[in-house]
């Protein structure tokens, strides 16, 4: 089963309206492979979702960077999945390591969020990944399996989930995983899905890599058989994001 290449741009907590307009115009002018070949999703901060959605080319889509774990209500400062759906935002990033580590989001909380977002009709980029300490202790696979299990325990269909493997030590550090390191974990994650969900889910779920991907290293990573795309932070705010999208070819 073919897995369409997926490139996500996580803008994190960056940008002024002027900067956002500039990034959107670079994206709108970029020559990229057709949407039959690559699915592109950019994720601005909540405040800019409307602006980006209304000005972005129609073949690219928009994701929120988070949403609340259940139905909206008395949760000051939160944004609900229902609100995103009402705004016409199709995707949400959940479980990013910055939220897991800085805001103490547990595996179970992230799993609950994924299940709730899916139940409301959102598509989810679900992030997993180990810290440097965990990698050095040899527990990479245990960590990402536990993070993935907390999702698998709560969802029955994976057709609206893209799994992002993002080693924490590679995020925003300029220290990219080698293609072999990325392939090894992606292969193991796919094996885990095979054993714990179904062969069909394992074959169809896109597993994308994130962590210091840029225009120079994307080709080699994209050539790995189990790397189905990227989640890009820093470089998604730069014109080289177009080169990363082109690595789908
Ligand atoms: C990210 O934040 O998801 C990410 C991968 O960041 P960067 O590309 O900057 O390492």
UniProtKB/TrEMBL annotation:
Keyword RNA-binding among UniProt keywords: no
EC number: 5.3.1.1
Stored InterPro entries: Aldolase_TIM (IPR013785), TIM_sf (IPR035990), TrioseP_Isoase_bac/euk (IPR022896), Triosephosphate_isomerase (IPR000652), Triosephosphate_isomerase_AS (IPR020861)
Compartment list: Cytoplasm
Catalytically driven reaction(s): D-glyceraldehyde 3-phosphate = dihydroxyacetone phosphate
Recorded metabolic or biological pathway in which this protein acts: Carbohydrate degradation; glycolysis; D-glyceraldehyde 3-phosphate from glycerone phosphate: step 1/1; Carbohydrate biosynthesis; gluconeogenesis
Species annotation: Citrus unshiu (Satsuma mandarin)
Transmembrane segments: none
Subunit structure: Homodimer.
GO aspect biological process, one term: glyceraldehyde-3-phosphate biosynthetic process
GO molecular function, one term: triose-phosphate isomerase activity
Coiled-coil annotated spans: none
One GO cellular component term: cytosol
Gene3D superfamilies given in the database record: Aldolase class I (3.20.20.70)
Keywords of this entry: Cytoplasm, Gluconeogenesis, Glycolysis, Isomerase
Pfam families, alphabetized: TIM
Name of this chain's protein: Triosephosphate isomerase, cytosolic
Domain of life: Eukaryota
Major location category of this protein: cytoplasm
Family assignment from sequence similarity: Belongs to the triosephosphate isomerase family.
């Amino acid at each position: 089963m073919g897995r369409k290449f997926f490139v996500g741009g996580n803008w994190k907590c960056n940008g002024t309206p002027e900067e956002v307009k500039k990034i959107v115009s670079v994206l709108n002018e970029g020559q990229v492979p057709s949407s039959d070949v690559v699915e592109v999703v950019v994720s601005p901060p909540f405040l800019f979702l409307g602006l980006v959605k209304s000005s972005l080319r129609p073949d690219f889509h928009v994701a929120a960077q988070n949403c609340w774990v259940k139905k909206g209500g008395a949760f000051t400062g939160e944004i609900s999945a229902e609100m995103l759906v009402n705004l016409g935002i199709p995707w949400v990033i959940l479980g990013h390591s910055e939220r897991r580590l800085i805001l103490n989001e547990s595996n179970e909380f992230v799993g609950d969020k994924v299940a709730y977002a899916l139940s409301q009709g959102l598509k989810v980029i679900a992030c997993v990944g180990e810290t440097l300490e965990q990698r050095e202790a040899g527990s990479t696979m245990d960590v990402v399996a536990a993070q993935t299990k907390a999702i698998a325990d709560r969802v029955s269909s994976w057709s609206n989930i893209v799994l992002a493997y993002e080693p924490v030590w590679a995020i925003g550090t300029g220290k990219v995983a080698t293609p072999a390191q990325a392939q090894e974990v992606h292969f193991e994650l796919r094996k885990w899905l095979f054993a714990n969900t179904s062969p069909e889910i394992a074959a169809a779920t896109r597993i994308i890599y994130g962590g210091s991907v840029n225009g120079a290293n994307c080709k080699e990573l994209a050539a790995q058989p189990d790397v189905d795309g990227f989640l890009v932070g820093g470089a998604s705010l730069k014109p080289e994001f177009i080169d990363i999208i082109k690595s789908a070819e």
